[in-house]
Design a protein that fits this description.
The complex is a heterodimer of chains A (about 600) and B (about 260). Chain A is of the alpha+beta class and about 600 residues long. Chain A is built from 16 helices and 17 strands. In chain A, β8 (about 280-285) and β9 form a beta hairpin. In chain A, α1 (about 5-25) packs antiparallel against α2 (about 25-40) and α1 packs parallel to α3 (about 40-100). Chain B contains 7 helices and 6 strands. In chain B, strands 3-2-1-6-5-4 form a 6-stranded antiparallel beta sheet, sandwiched between helices. With about 260 residues, chain B is an alpha+beta fold. The chains are: A alpha+beta (about 600), B alpha+beta (about 260). The interface of A and B includes residues 26, 73, 77 and 78 of A.
Chain lengths: ~600, ~260
């Protein structure tokens, strides 16, 4: 190749390289120019160098453009993202503002922060305050809510505006001529100097709180007034709560019991299952160390964060145990009473023939005495005649040995005592039969004086060592009654009278007095008074003496049912009255008034 | 830091570029650059992506032997081998990463290794490809006759994006599914397909295609566009490479079209 043709070829390559540059194939252009440059053609060296510089400038320019494009795109995208975020936030807060249940109002401070104008208000606020947006926006707070100053809201807004510190205003009662209700406010300041008031209508909560307090008070009262002991025991077995009855049984104030371990008082606590246990007998040891029988049931309850607590419900069995003992005693007495009638019948027959035989023996002895007198007269004649002196002597010796004179003097008295004794037995048996007279469904006419005498016989053993009995029986008409039941009333009153006298502290072994008085009470009623000189009934228990199972006597001496039954028999079965008058240390008089015809008195008016 | 596509931000994409910029600078072949980029994209968004691929238009004559043979066979199969000229641009796979192991190697691809842009009708018969090239802002013209293709911009300066929000249902104006490989969409639960790309130099077009199992909005796609600009800037000033494919014993060294 010639120099000329070589130069032409290089020139052509140079043109191609420039074309590649213009086409954007910079790398190809760069390679082409570099190879031309390497050939070292002096004429083209400057041109090639300039082209290479131009190429690099072009590359840099294009790279700058691409980088700028990328930066611009990134910026645009970031702006879009930011705008989107702002739009989302605005939509989110607008939605929140519009749909939140709390009332929200935005205020602009005017007059140097003294007054505040509504700039925005949400739907809840309009609803709570019964406002309309168009008549609220742009108006002063005090024009819209004239009592804002009274509840302290205006002052708080001023304070927040001045300090910039948010303030919570605890629930207060807002009321003006248009609206009223409990409000709870929170106020804060925006960077825009506007104030935001967020608040709630807490009227329902307040009403619910009041109702809850009332319900709690009722529950507390219910628990405290429950007639059984209630102890709330926590999962840690410590006492959380006790009611009044439990406090009394455990002999300590509730404050002293709360916090104590329950198993200190009840030793046999078992927590076997999550179910209530059926009532079972157990015992608790109270604060004073006394062991008390109780009927106890455990009631598990889940509360709060699934904590299992137990309610120990228990009933003091002390009274019940005593009553059960008394009831058993009463049942025994009843059985004995039922036997008594049979026994009386059995005794009566031998008593009768003993009495008859004693009468026969008395008569026979009198005959024998008369015959002995005749024999003595004959012996005197025999002695005086001097006949048969030996016979006369033997007769006198035999008489002396037999102490016939003593027999003649004592036997009649002994027989008399025996007759009296058997007569007494007959009287008692008769009284027992009388006393045990069964009542057969209907009232019958009875002589109450006779009934009282019979009862006195029956009760003699109860009073004969402590009291003398004095009777003053008036003339009583037959009374329509259940005489068996009335005998029981009389017996109870007599036994009580004897016990009262025996318990009288000032007796010192002296005999007391029981006085029975009967008589008429008007035309239609009879009256029986049984008075004793016993210890009397203290005033504080007088209202309870007719209560079933109330007694002041030790176990076995009284059932606690006597006066209750007596009152029931007199009042309920006989339409009468049973009252008493008592003075401690002097005695008691029980008075029974009974209608003669056994009927309730007709009402005569109010 | 791995994240979901829906959570990405411009800052995250900047970070992604920062993570691969230096490796790109020192790469010797465009194939390496594409590999770095698809790996970085895939690893960042692995939670959302099924596959990421990079394609570059390379003149038929500059293809390695295997790609050349693949393109020729494809042209032959549609009876258009006569249109395959030395300068015919071939959309060549230059980078791939995905959830299936064989998707991680360019040379193991059996289906998309090289697609010759033979004619308007040939490209138009592939809905995704025609839509892709169109929406990237690089309409192809065959005004020099079949096989003599010019890309739209001399410098390929524009960067565009392609976006199919619902790959299972999206159709083109002819009523065809844009993503024709619906079995692939179904099997791998692909929801959205998108691509960003543009001319890099000398009229070559570089495209990154992402297949997502997460529904992706257009804004997210746009966030990937600056990556192409930054890559172009980097290659203009810092890269001395002019070769696309790493040479193998059997390959000729290719140049981008």
């Amino acid at each position: 190749m010639t120099d000329q043709s070589a130069s032409a070829e290089v020139l052509e390559r140079l043109q191609e390289a420039v074309a590649l540059m213009s086409y954007g194939s910079l790398q190809d252009a760069r390679e082409s120019l570099t190879s031309i440059s390497a050939e070292g053609i002096p004429l083209l060296e400057g041109l090639v160098s300039a082209s290479l510089v131009l190429l690099e400038r072009l590359a840099e320019s294009l790279a700058s453009k691409e980088t700028a494009m990328a930066t611009l795109q990134f910026s645009l995208l970031e702006l879009e993202v930011a705008q989107d975020e702002i739009r989302k936030n605005e939509a989110r807060y607008r939605e929140l503002f519009s749909s939140m249940n709390d009332g929200v109002a935005v205020f602009e401070a005017v007059e140097g922060g003294e007054s505040f104008i509504f700039r925005d208000i949400n739907a809840s606020s309009l609803r709570i305050e019964r406002l309309e947006r168009r008549t609220t926006i742009g108006r002063k707070l005090t024009e819209v809510l004239p009592s804002a100053g009274d509840v302290g809201l205006l002052d708080v807004l001023r304070r927040v505006y001045e300090s910039g510190n948010p303030v919570y205003l605890s629930p207060c009662f807002y009321h003006d001529s248009r609206i009223k209700g409990w409000r709870e406010y929170f106020i804060y300041k925006l960077p825009t100097e506007e104030l935001v008031l967020v608040y709630r209508d807490v009227s329902k909560e307040k009403a619910a709180e009041k109702a809850l307090r009332s319900a709690l008070a009722s529950t507390e009262k219910l628990i405290d007034s429950a007639p059984i002991g209630l102890v709330v025991v926590g999962a840690d077995e410590t006492i959380r709560r006790v009611n009044a009855v439990a406090s009394e049984i455990l002999a300590a104030e509730p404050a002293h019991l709360v916090g104590q371990r329950w198993d200190r008082f009840r030793k046999d606590v078992r927590r076997s299952s999550g179910r209530s246990t059926p009532p079972e007998e157990s015992c608790v040891v109270n604060f004073e160390g006394d062991s008390i029988s109780v009927l106890v049931s455990e009631i598990p309850v889940t509360v709060g964060d699934e904590e299992m607590i137990h309610i120990e419900a228990f009933l003091d069995l002390t009274d019940r145990k005593r009553l059960e003992t008394q009831l058993r005693h009463a049942q025994k007495l009843e059985a004995v009473g039922q036997l008594a009638a049979g026994i009386a019948h059995e005794i009566n027959t031998p008593a009768q023939f003993i009495g008859d035989n004693l009468s026969f023996l008395s008569g026979a002895f009198e005959s024998l005495s008369r015959m002995v007198t005749a024999y003595r007269a004959s012996i005197g004649v025999l002695t005086a005649s001097g006949e048969s002196p030996e016979v006369a002597r033997k007769i006198r010796e035999t008489e002396a040995a037999a102490d016939l004179k003593f027999i003649e003097e004592q036997v009649p008295a002994a027989l008399q005592d025996a007759r009296e004794g058997i007569s007494r037995i007959s009287t008692i048996v008769s009284a027992m039969k009388q006393f045990g007279h069964p009542d057969h469904g209907e009232k019958s006419q009875a002589d109450l004086n006779h009934a009282l005498r019979a009862t006195l016989e029956i009760a003699r053993n109860e009073y004969k060592h402590v009291a003398e009995v004095e009777t003053d029986f008036g003339d009583l008409p037959p009374v329509a009654c259940y005489v068996g039941d009335l005998n029981q009333v009389f017996l109870n009153l007599l036994v009580n009278a004897a016990h009262a006298i025996a318990d009288s502290p000032g007796r010192n072994g002296n005999m007391g007095r029981i006085r029975l008085h009967t008589g008429r009470a008007g035309d239609d009623h009879v009256r029986i008074d049984i008075r004793d000189t016993g210890c009397g009934i203290p005033r504080e228990i007088q209202e309870r003496v007719f209560d079933p199972f109330f007694t002041t006597k030790e176990v076995g001496r009284g059932t606690g049912q006597g006066l209750a039954i007596a009152r029931s028999i007199v009042v309920d079965k006989h339409h009468g009255s049973l009252t008493f008058d008592s003075e401690v240390g002097k005695g008691t008089t029980f008075t029974i008034i009974l209608p003669v015809n056994g009927m309730a008195a007709a009402r005569t008016g109010d | 830091m791995e994240m979901r596509l829906g959570d990405t931000t411009p800052t995250a994409i900047r970070d992604l570029w920062g993570g691969c910029m230096h490796r790109v600078t020192s790469a010797q072949y465009l194939e390496d650059v594409a590999g770095i980029m698809v790996s970085e994209i895939y690893e960042r968004f692995q939670a959302s992506l099924v596959m990421t691929r990079a394609f570059l238009t390379v003149p038929f004559q500059s293809l390695p032997a295997r790609q050349k043979e693949f393109a020729r066979e494809l042209a032959r199969s549609v009876a258009l081998e006569s249109l395959l000229k030395p300068a015919t641009p071939v959309l060549s796979l230059v980078g791939t990463r995905g959830c299936v192991e064989e998707w991680n190697h360019v040379r193991r691809s059996h289906r998309h290794l090289a697609l010759p842009l033979l004619s308007e009708s040939f490209v138009g018969a592939i809905p995704m490809m025609s839509r892709l090239l169109k929406e990237l802002g690089l309409p192809l013209t065959w005004d020099q006759g079949p096989g003599e293709v010019l890309t739209g911009q001399t410098l390929g300066s524009e960067v565009g994006f392609f976006h199919i929000e619902d790959a299972a249902v999206a159709e083109d104006e002819l009523g065809r599914k844009i993503i024709t490989a619906q079995e692939f969409v179904a099997d791998y639960d692909v929801r959205s397909v998108f691509a960003v790309g543009g001319g890099i130099f000398g009229g070559a077009v570089l495209v990154f295609i992402l297949f997502s199992r997460e529904r992706v909005e257009a804004r997210t796609v746009r966030m990937f566009m600056p990556l192409v600009n930054l890559l172009k800037a980097m290659m203009l000033t810092h890269c001395s490479m002019s070769r696309v494919f790493r040479p193998t014993n059997a390959d000729a060294v290719g140049r981008p079209s």
